[in-house]
Specification:
- This protein has 365 residues and is an alpha/beta fold.
- The protein has one domain: UDP-N-acetylmuramoyl-L-alanine:D-glutamate ligase (3-Layer(aba) Sandwich).
- It is built from 13 helices and 13 strands.
- Strands 5-4-1-8-9-10-11-12-13 form a 9-stranded mixed sheet, with helices on both faces. The chain has a 4-stranded mixed sheet with strand order 3-2-6-7.
- Helix 11 runs antiparallel to helix 12.
- The chain starts with 19 loop residues before the first strand and ends in a 10-residue tail after the last helix.
- Keywords: Kinase, Transferase.
């Protein structure tokens, strides 16, 4: 999707407040490509995770992609540049696929990447009245996808424009029901401010644990957030769940689920091809993954799972049905490259939901 020039700054909030808000302090653009293993062998850091890089390394990776891209007969475009970021993926999924009024709070720059982010999110119906324009570059991320669909992220946040804690106001959160956030130690100040204000406005908080590196390296402030009792819903994948309990005798997903459920009303641990487990109060459910399809690209799988799960929550559905819808939407995004679901794959999901007797969004009618 091209970066069309749009009127700046963005309009003030008008009409109905978003039911679900996403806090993504820095707008971000993903460069997603399928690459051979030799490139992954060259770059520092563990595969499958997310490790920040500087602008020079980002440019080096983008240059290296030209000689390492894997040809794909199923996808004529082996590389995509799209609006990204975990929270943005979840919010876009809620609006585009589930018809839930949703918005983003954050900052972008008036550069090519910022304009692309704004155009893509606007096109998908996301409310951007909480997005502020600032001087500087928009954040970028290289998403390297191997032949098996596993993705390795290298975000570049160096000098990127960012929303600050003192720029948040109660008006940003008024009349919304949920705030979606991703744990990041460099955003800790704005995360804490957002939680404080959101709670004053009666808004529920959803937190994603981000990456196993973030949990491993910055576990202490994460535990403070969880133990505060302010997090209503927490999402973790299997690797993040294991890191959360590193050093404990039992580090399996069930133990992590029980730990999270002590502090959060809803706790969810996603298990990739093995589905997910979730807990609310004393209720525990295990839901299998949807189908046996090989993943083209796992980018955004957890983010879109959250879209489906949150759709179920705001519709008042039982825990198991929330998980099943999350499994459907998470399984939808892995059918193509990047964290944005194609119109064809949304239709695939609606058909799957109908077959399984799940509540289908009105948007597909």
């Amino acid at each position: 999707m091209g970066a069309e020039v749009l009127p700046f700054p963005l309009p003030k909030k008008q009409g109905q407040a978003p039911l679900i808000l996403g806090l993504q302090p820095s707008a971000l653009v993903d460069h997603v490509a399928k690459v051979d293993c030799s490139l992954l062998d060259q770059i520092p850091g563990e595969r499958g995770g997310s490790q920040p890089v500087g602008i020079e390394e980002l440019q080096h990776l983008l240059n290296e992609l030209k000689t390492h891209i894997l040809p794909s007969p199923d996808d004529p475009s082996p590389m995509k540049t799209i609006a990204g970021g975990s929270v943005a993926n979840t919010i876009r999924g809620l609006t585009a696929g589930f018809g839930i009024t949703s918005g983003i709070i954050g900052a972008y720059a008036d550069d090519e990447q910022g304009r692309l982010f704004v155009h893509n999110m606007t096109y998908n119906g996301v409310n951007l009245s909480g997005l502020k324009m600032k001087q500087g570059p928009t954040a970028q991320c290289v998403c390297l996808v191997d032949a098996f669909g596993n993705r390795t992220m290298r975000p570049c946040l160096s000098n990127a424009v960012k929303l600050q804690a003192d720029e948040l106001t109660r008006e940003d959160f008024r009349d919304s029901k949920w705030l979606v956030m991703r744990y990041a130690v460099h955003n800790l100040e704005v995360i804490r401010a957002a939680i404080r204000i959101a709670k004053q406005e009666g808004v529920c908080i959803s937190l994603d644990l981000a990456s196993f590196e973030m949990v491993r390296n910055f576990k202490s402030p994460l535990l403070e957030l969880l133990e505060s009792g302010d997090i209503d819903l927490c999402f973790a994948n299997e690797d993040e769940a294991k890191e959360l309990l590193r050093g404990e005798q039992n580090t399996d997903p069930e133990a992590a689920l029980n730990f999270l459920a002590k502090h959060c009303q809803w706790a969810v641990v996603t298990l990739g091809s093995n589905g997910c487990i979730a807990k609310h109060g004393k209720e525990v459910v295990r839901v299998p993954a949807i189908g046996e399809m090989k993943a083209i690209d796992a980018t955004g799988a957890g983010d879109l799972f959250a879209s489906g799960f949150l759709f179920g929550l705001v519709k008042g559905l039982p825990l198991e049905e929330c998980c099943k819808i999350g499994s459907c939407s998470g399984g939808t995004v892995i059918r193509s490259l990047g964290g944005e679901v194609t119109p064809e794959n949304w239709q695939w999901m609606y058909k799957h939901m109908k077959v399984k007797g799940l509540l289908v969004p009105e948007i597909c009618q």
